[in-house]
Amino acid sequence: MRVLADTEVLQRSYVTCIAATMLLEYLINNWKYTNAPEGKRPFEKIVGLLKFGVPSSFLMGAYDCVIISHTQTVWSTANCMAYWMVPVNAMCVTFASVAYASARIRQKDDYTNYALASLACGGIIHHWMKNGFLSCYFTVALLICAKIKKHNELLGIEPLPMGYSSDIINRQYEKYPDFTLTKDPRGRRPWE
Questions:
Q1: Cα separation of 47 and 33, whole Å?
Q2: What HEC string does the chain produce?
Q3: What is the pTM of this model?
């Protein structure tokens, strides 16, 4: 068995990182939940939700590990991360799968598909948190958010466009932005 030199290991890890970055960028830019109508391309819809579920659940788990739980071992860290990552990502997969299945069975694209998917995610929340009061309120909030999302989708409204860049935000007129609330009535100083 041949032992790899340090440069070969670095080159292989570099190539792996580049490939993973390219794949991640491809998934983020091209696989969206709303690319296909309901009842079509379920895997793309699952990946479209997981690309939001994985990073957010990772950040929640990391926050819990570092700030709240102060985990000391690898096992306790993995347990704490899994506590957050598994249910959140299971809800993403469940929402996409149930919405797809109900759209295929009913042959309709309306609010009921999202309502059924939200109720299925409520079951995961109840099993995860083991608190009926909290899971009931979370399910109702998820139902409301799903209805608003479907309403905006049916009307063609995009309240938070993902690829939005404004000239007002990107424009900078001077070297240092002026964050003062009121301008000096005497005008600019020579040192400004």
A1: 8
A2: CCCCCHHHHHHHHHHHHHHHHHHHHHHHHHCCHHHCCCCCCHHHHHHHHHHHHHHHHHHHHHHHHHHHHCCCCHHHHHHHHHHHHHHHHHHHHHHHHHHHHHHHHHCCCCHHHHHHHHHHHHHHHHHHHCCHHHHHHHHHHHHHHHHHHHHHHHHCCCCCCCCCCCHHHHCCCCCCCCCCCCCCCCCCCCCC
A3: 0.72
Tens digit of pLDDT per residue, the chain (192 long)?
A: 455 566 776 677 777 778 777 777 777 777 777 777 888 888 888 888 898 899 999 999 999 999 999 999 999 999 999 999 999 999 999 999 999 999 999 998 888 999 999 999 999 999 999 998 999 999 999 999 999 988 888 888 877 666 655 555 556 556 666 666 777 777 777 776
Block residue for tokens 């809800």: 91
**Residue with the two structure tokens 């830019």:** 29
